[in-house]
Amino acid sequence: MGVTSVSLDLKDPEASIASMARAVSNWGRWGEDDAVGTLNLIDDEARTRAARLVRTGESLSLSLPFDMNGPQRGWRRRTNPVHTMLDTGTDAERGLQGFPHGIGGADDVIAMPLQCSTQWDGLGHIFDHGMAWNGRRAGDVVTSEGDLVTGIEHAAPLITGRGVLLDLGRHLSPATGELDDGYAITPDDLDACIAAQGPTSEIGTGDIVLVRTGQLARAKREGWGEYAGGPAPGLSFTTAPWLRARDIAAIATDTWGFEVRPNEFENAFQPLHQVVIPHLGLTIGEMWDLDALADSCAASSRYEFLLTAAPLRITGAVGSPVNPIALL
Amino acid sequence: MGVTSVSLDLKDPEASIASMARAVSNWGRWGEDDAVGTLNLIDDEARTRAARLVRTGESLSLSLPFDMNGPQRGWRRRTNPVHTMLDTGTDAERGLQGFPHGIGGADDVIAMPLQCSTQWDGLGHIFDHGMAWNGRRAGDVVTSEGDLVTGIEHAAPLITGRGVLLDLGRHLSPATGELDDGYAITPDDLDACIAAQGPTSEIGTGDIVLVRTGQLARAKREGWGEYAGGPAPGLSFTTAPWLRARDIAAIATDTWGFEVRPNEFENAFQPLHQVVIPHLGLTIGEMWDLDALADSCAASSRYEFLLTAAPLRITGAVGSPVNPIALL
Amino acid sequence: MGVTSVSLDLKDPEASIASMARAVSNWGRWGEDDAVGTLNLIDDEARTRAARLVRTGESLSLSLPFDMNGPQRGWRRRTNPVHTMLDTGTDAERGLQGFPHGIGGADDVIAMPLQCSTQWDGLGHIFDHGMAWNGRRAGDVVTSEGDLVTGIEHAAPLITGRGVLLDLGRHLSPATGELDDGYAITPDDLDACIAAQGPTSEIGTGDIVLVRTGQLARAKREGWGEYAGGPAPGLSFTTAPWLRARDIAAIATDTWGFEVRPNEFENAFQPLHQVVIPHLGLTIGEMWDLDALADSCAASSRYEFLLTAAPLRITGAVGSPVNPIALL
Amino acid sequence: MGVTSVSLDLKDPEASIASMARAVSNWGRWGEDDAVGTLNLIDDEARTRAARLVRTGESLSLSLPFDMNGPQRGWRRRTNPVHTMLDTGTDAERGLQGFPHGIGGADDVIAMPLQCSTQWDGLGHIFDHGMAWNGRRAGDVVTSEGDLVTGIEHAAPLITGRGVLLDLGRHLSPATGELDDGYAITPDDLDACIAAQGPTSEIGTGDIVLVRTGQLARAKREGWGEYAGGPAPGLSFTTAPWLRARDIAAIATDTWGFEVRPNEFENAFQPLHQVVIPHLGLTIGEMWDLDALADSCAASSRYEFLLTAAPLRITGAVGSPVNPIALL
What we know:
The structure is a homotetramer of 328-residue chains. With 328 residues, chain A is of the alpha/beta class. The first copy, chain A, has helices at residues 13-24, 44-51, 89-93, 138-141, 168-172, 187-197, 215-222, 240-246, 271-280, 291-300; strands spanning 59-61, 82-87, 103-105, 107-113, 119-121, 126-128, 131-132, 136-137, 142-143, 146-147, 160-167, 184-185, 208-212, 234-235, 250-253, 283-286, 304-308, 319-321, 325-327.
């Protein structure tokens, strides 16, 4: 693919997005009925190889806690998860539950945005000029009844494969391990990080790439502040061809919004999303906690592992909370 | 362990439960602060061996869909999941969202009981006479603020290991593959099934055992009916010593309630739960869809695989929805 | 108004609805910015007169209970209300809450469809061929962010005035007080009921009319069954001109859906709604419990009272739960 | 009643609360089964007189909007209301809903704490040393299934009667109409306000007293800030005997927490609540918007009106959102 020359005019995001979209589009690549985009790139053989990467058996959850102490502050009605009890141990102990032979129970419910914490963005999450993944009209895909075509349920069995950590935080800021807010990670940064980390971080077809910026480590230390939507390090708009050329299956970051914020264009909002979700068909993870994984990878100098990051099988969802498991 | 002689009086569940609890108790086994029970039995070495079981790379989701077509009928305020949209493609296509440069988005929320569909029961889910796992008072563990001690978040990284399918449905009912409602699976049934299936279904320390009854296949064909709480095949109360002796890490079934229903005692409610959750410290999965897995295992005559069944990391939850992934 | 001659073709609901809509339309009557329709017809003078109707000071709630025992069965994701506790007395009594000087508390949350039980339909609830009240395009009015124009909050202070009970159940079925399911109440039935009940049930401008069919009494006795959407007595499609001619402000019934079900046309769904909400601008109440009120009115032979039925002031809602208070 | 001499030790809230509780207790006054406390003091005769107060027919909603722009910030899992759509006008206009003859619809759901905005506190909301209203053990009253004894549903028909506005903001701060945060309203302040406002604000048995501090006007102007739980003007702990002596039925304020904050005792939390809810049996309203009412009362020099403030009839709720209607 020779997709490196795309026009970028920082004052004209719309033209740049259109140009980039044409350059990297995967529309039609997996047939007109496709519902999973680049997740097609993980095949059984890739999963078999990924399983063989397991060395120590160390299992790490890459999920943040889901509770009221999360980063959400109400933007677009996104709250932190509200978890309440239907039955409690206190009631059981006091003998209030009316069950026989001394059995008691506790039960619970949750109300939450599907993108309130560690999550996958589904392919129905972002549109470009009213068009969704694979060239469909957005209104034919996601109505108030949910995503009728590319709902996250289609990805339910698919997101297990080779995970690779690119620890840009440590690579670019060895002293702190954290990139500054507003830092735009470029294709050259990605390549240099891979070179520095060594061959276990080479990226190939069907890989699930985890990009650590270190911003989450800072938020855990200093408080959420503007983590949900404010300034953040993240991928530059210019990485779209890099993502396309390597044919990765999915990507996730330790930030709220995957791409650098403020966005690189003037008066813009998440332009890289606008390219990679509807045009590339790329599944994006956000708010993943990569810190323990990064410590482990740094200690072993191995950056590849079996990653199982199964979304909940919610019919018609445009995103899903997830508890990604790295098996090292 | 010689825990096979426990007194059973079908008219006296309370005494039988007490006797069985004493016989199989794991209280104190992993220290007084333990929060995960038999999940301790999966260690890094076990996970490494489990990863080596992968042969074909076939990945199967063992989850039911999460939507309004689920089995819940309101018992104890358990509803099916209510999934609603915060933003839609219809709105985006019509230009109603107010974002710049043609980007549009869809977002969603969910309200659901944590045990409405494919799930794990956490250790705070069931109590015996006001006592919770490891000998704690239930009211010290699960208040209206959630499970303060044994919340499902402690299990977040742990539930990945060797899965073994015991297809009791096919074994006992070869013609239909489905056990009758009310059929109580005995220890002898389990042993005979293992023997018939062959060495890949031998059960050992730290395994995650999946028991298929076939009831879910029937429900998918005929409608939910009384699936949520009504008559069902399931484990006999007498299997508790078998589960304890094999030191399994976790177990899951394709039924609403894991154990046979109606329960074997008169005037009883889930007596096996009352033994194995608070006394054995066993994590139980329910409403798992094992049908595709069973087809695959039957075809290959291999019943073991890498299972990753990561609960959402919901702080203080006594259960969690899960999308279990079997990697064969 | 001479709006009585409208064409009705039971095989052609679409043409009949169009004809009826033209005959009764209030579009433009209260200006192009109007957000409340016929609620404009209750003025301060009408409210003053309504307050003077109070004789005995008897106060009756016309609301059903809001709980899991309600009529909803999941149609279009409508559930019964799920009420859960954030804090409990059990926890407080056990000393688990961490407050000083012995204070304890209980708190709660609810998740519910706004039309799950006793309710008002707002003007954004129903559209006719993509058009909303007062001639607006439906997509300009109700997006996934709610009703941006005619949200129920506009009605917050308005729905207090003269209430009149028309007890069609008692009038037409004196033996049981209950109309049969499928019975269509005609304009003549309404007039005859008024004549029989006497001058306190004369209907005039700005009145809030409560039509009791008795179906709810039957459901309370026999169980909900198909109450939510099944066969029911209710207003005939032909009552639209009657409702328009009397210039009532609002109307409510003791049924799920206000109009007779099955609907009078073949292959139809709520055709009277399609006329009276978007074209007449009429606010409709459903699932009101009129039984105690009917007893009281029958005993006193007075059918008028002060009615205060204030919707919750939920920004952008297309309906609201309500606890209507009749002060007799 | 001579209940004015109660001991107050600002360093010992516990003793002061106990002393005050004894002085003002209503336990047993309405029988041992009572579920509504001082709401008993509004009888039919009082409601009849209240209806006669109506002069102009002006109807005012005293409710704040219920939406994501509300004051909640997550304390004890209290969020602002999350209102989402099940169906939209955009979908209807685009022809996505599948209904016949051109009908379309919009529907919605809400998830909210019952005390997130304009509200009533029910009698099960606050306990004193594990005891609830009328001398019951808190754990016998409010379990995780809700308030089994004094749920808000018992108050459903009762809260309509004579409302009286005491505009302490205007009375004590004529220049701004707003009391400072931290200002404790004393019994003398209440009496002086009544004297200044004149005979229409005399308080008697069964009245519903609305105390305006002006804090909400400030919050509407300057932003919520710490409105939910931070410093605020409010009633002094010493007003409990005043409230008891006048036998009011209910009271509401324009603040988050009714009583002055910070509380007057050291290391205290809502001590007046601890007296007046469980001991007096007083129903308390919070976050009422009294500003338009205050303007109207000031203009007419009449401070009494018919108030209808019907809680939703939610079974077992310890509080309820409410849209209070003042009819002047």
